[in-house]
Write a structure and sequence with these properties.
With about 600 residues, the chain is of the alpha+beta class. The chain contains 21 helices and 19 strands. Strand 18 and strand 19 form a beta hairpin. Helix 3 packs across helix 13.
């Protein structure tokens, strides 16, 4: 007899959606075969994702290099289209999962955002409260009789603080601002209190509360004469209304439904996934952990280990179309999943919550599909951008995987060094190599927060031969090392650059030293040196291969740029990851990260100029 996990569907938590606001400008900045780049797309991709130190600090140069990199992405995507890479299972399932997220978000906008109305009175009330910081002592209990008895005692002169001590409630007051409470009625009660006044009992979220106002301060950071204050008020009121409306929509969709998932499939999936994570982290079940993240590579490894029958077997029975384990795993790739124990039971509890959210999101997105939201321009445009990114990445990775370094090539480098009397420029870098795009986000946020780069390397770097040195390469000839060596040569000491595409994934590096040295003096051959030489040769081959192929693709598909229009495009100085929050919960990167691939353009121009 089969065993099932039963999910009673209901909704708890915050509901919000943040849409990237882009300048509405559809002027064509560049034409690439049958595709194009508009001013709007360029601005969104430039402003809302990181770009550390392109080859120049001059913004016009950076904009050009960024545009050339976007064009390269489009060219590789067009080639991938011709090769029908979009028929690959990984691409189809990834894009379908993204489409469902976008459809869910549009459903939220239609059913929630479009119905939010703010009155002038609500805004006026909010402005009268937005500068206030209330310090409240709070008593709470699910027992209404007990709370009302306490209130009667207070009315007769009982000490509020004595009751707190008696119930072992900390005497530390709670700080409350506009929007701190989800329930508007509770907020009305506390903001109408006078100093040292005790409120009547108030019910919210199945609990009863009594409040005492012990301090009422002014927030010096908010100036009522500025638009900023009004914007805060509008956002706070909008968030609260969206929660209320969103909950009503979800209660209607999800309330009372009981969905079953196959326990045998779930247990098997969970056990295999836990084993994969433990192998990656070299941990055992008894080891203590704190916030280990389930990586995309973990899930892809599990997908690769499952046979066709396992992947397509019915995992969750849902209306007319059951969901497979394959559906769930591709969904999980776009979720931030953390766990705090290698215990099989604890791991399954964490995964069980993800399965529950998966079911909820699937029910919501199916409502969106019924309304045809997958066909509206905003969803199609979002999907087009991510589709191009995925196709170009897969095709570039296939070229990177083809790079091989022979022993004779390594020997040629060492022999040349031993016989040379030339003086060379050497550089020393700390590099963080990763194959996980979410790590890049954490690295860049760490850089922006002022964290030590070497410490970040000790956490995130995956290059084997620099693990012991916390990412430090040691001095090497800047004419080698492909794009890394070439870029490092032109940086100032202390500058950070990246991420760039390398055969093993993505590289972010910091220049920590420069010097001139005789080439012969620099040659010392040991096991690590030979590994390093192979890495540098692979990087050089990767750079040459990608640039050469991009030039060929530009000639094949034809490109046309509007350089004058590019000069006039305004950009922001934001240099961090920006997220797009999805309605009814969830978030993804606002846009795909743009990998710097721009040197091909000079080669392309030179070829065009030669008759």
């Amino acid at each position: 007899m089969k065993s099932y996990l039963v999910f009673n569907i209901f909704f708890i938590g915050l509901i919000f959606s943040v849409t990237v606001i882009a300048q509405s400008n559809n002027e064509i900045l560049a034409k690439i075969g049958s595709d194009n780049i508009t001013v709007e797309e360029f601005q969104n991709r430039f402003d809302f994702m990181p770009h550390l130190n392109y080859s120049s600090s001059n913004i016009d140069s950076v904009k050009k290099e960024f545009l050339y990199s976007l064009i390269a992405e489009k060219l590789w995507a067009l080639e991938a289209d011709e090769l029908q890479i979009d028929t690959f299972s990984t691409v189809r399932y990834s894009l379908k999962t993204l489409e469902k997220l976008f459809v869910k978000d549009e459903f939220y906008k239609k059913e929630v955002e479009s119905k939010i109305k703010l009155s002038g009175n609500e805004i006026s009330t909010g402005l009268s409260r937005v500068t206030r910081i209330l310090n409240l002592m709070i008593i709470t209990s699910p027992d209404s009789d007990q709370v009302w008895q306490l209130y009667d005692a207070f009315q007769k002169g009982a000490s509020f603080d004595s009751v707190l001590l008696q119930k072992q409630i900390p005497l530390q007051p709670h700080q409350v601002k506009l929007g701190s409470f989800e329930d508007e009625m509770v907020e009305d009660v506390v903001f109408k209190l006078n100093l040292n006044e005790i409120s009547i009992p108030v019910k919210a979220n199945n609990n009863w509360f009594i409040f005492k106002l012990v301090d009422d301060q002014q927030d010096p950071s908010i100036d009522l004469s500025k638009d900023y204050a009004r914007n805060i008020v509008i956002k706070k009121i909008t968030d609260r209304k969206s929660q209320k409306l969103g909950r009503a929509v979800l209660d209607k969709l999800l309330g009372g439904k009981s969905i079953t998932a196959d326990r045998q499939i779930f247990d098997k999936m969970s056990d295999r996934l836990l084993k994969i994570v433990m192998e990656r982290t070299t941990k055992v079940q008894d080891d203590s952990v704190t916030d280990i993240q389930l990586l995309e590579s973990d899930i892809l490894k599990l997908l690769a280990s499952l046979n066709k029958t396992e992947l397509n077997s019915s995992f969750i029975k849902l209306d007319y179309e059951p969901l497979t384990i394959k559906d769930f795993l591709y969904y999980a790739i776009y979720q931030k999943i953390y766990f705090d124990s290698f215990s099989s039971i604890r791991f399954k509890q964490t995964l069980n919550k993800v399965v529950k959210k998966f079911i909820e999101d699937e029910i919501i997105s199916r409502e969106g599909y019924k309304l045809g939201l997958q066909n509206i321009p905003s969803v199609q445009n979002d999907l087009r951008i991510w589709r191009n990114y995925y196709l170009s990445e897969i095709l570039m990775n296939s070229y990177a995987d083809s790079i091989k370094i022979s022993d004779s090539e390594t020997l040629k480098i060492t022999d040349a060094g031993e016989s040379s009397t030339d003086t060379i420029s050497q550089v020393n870098i700390i590099e963080i190599l990763t194959d996980n795009i979410e790590d890049i986000e954490k690295i860049i946020n760490g850089i922006n927060d002022g964290k030590d780069f070497k410490e970040l390397a000790s956490i995130f770097n995956k290059r084997e031969f620099t693990n012991q040195s916390k990412g430090e390469w040691g001095y090497f000839d800047s004419s080698t090392g492909g794009e890394i060596g070439k870029i490092a040569r032109n940086l100032e000491i202390g500058q950070i650059y990246g991420p760039i595409k390398v055969p093993e994934g993505y590289s972010i590096f910091k220049l920590i030293g420069k010097r001139k040295i005789n080439l012969k003096q620099s040659v010392t051959i040991d096991k690590d040196s030979l590994k390093f030489i192979r890495v540098k040769l692979a990087l050089s081959k990767m750079e040459n291969l990608i640039n050469k192929k991009t030039v060929a693709l530009a000639e094949k598909f034809k490109i046309k740029l509007n350089q004058e229009l590019l000069k006039n495009i305004g950009t922001s100085e934001i240099n961090t990851f920006t997220y797009r929050f999805i309605g009814f919960g969830g978030k993804i990167a606002a846009f795909p990260i743009t990998i710097p691939i721009y040197e091909w353009y000079e080669q392309y121009k030179q070829k065009k100029e030669i008759p």
